[in-house]
């Protein structure tokens, strides 16, 4: 289960819904709008077998992606 944290977004604060501990498949099922964010970041997670057992943070690190920056982009996508 993901925890709630406060995070800045364009000078505003909003409740962070997504943390790096959330599973990739849980993320895309709950928030389909995050698929594009993951793909733009370089994570082709939807077709990957690892998406069924990896967290977003684990997947991002495996692809050399900046985890805090990805979390910010994912949360911005669900805040819109």
Give the topology, please.
Blueprint: E1 5-9, E2 12-16, H1 24-30, H2 34-41, H3 56-62, H4 67-79
Antiparallel strand pairs: 1-2
Helix pairs in contact: 2-4
Q: What does it look like?
A:
- The chain has a single domain, classed as SP0561-like.
- Helix content is 44%, strand content 12%.
- The chain has helices spanning 24-30, 34-41, 56-62, 67-79; strands at residues 5-9, 12-16.
- It has a two-stranded antiparallel sheet with strand order 1-2.
- A hairpin with a 2-residue loop joins β1 and β2 (12-16).
- α2 packs antiparallel against α4.
Overall mean confidence score, pLDDT: 84
Quickly count the domains.
Answer: 1
Class, according to the CATH hierarchy? Mainly Alpha
Computed CA radius of gyration, to the nearest angstrom: 12 Å
Strand content: 5-15%
End-to-end Cα distance, whole Å, is: 22 Å
Structural class: alpha+beta
The total strand number stands at: 2
Percentage of residues assigned to helices = 40-55%
The CATH topology label is SP0561-like
Keyword list:
44% helix, SP0561-like, globular, 4 helices, 80 residues, 2 strands, alpha+beta
Q: TL;DR of this structure?
A:
Helix content is 44%, strand content 12%. With 80 residues, it is an alpha+beta fold. A two-stranded antiparallel ribbon has the order 1-2.
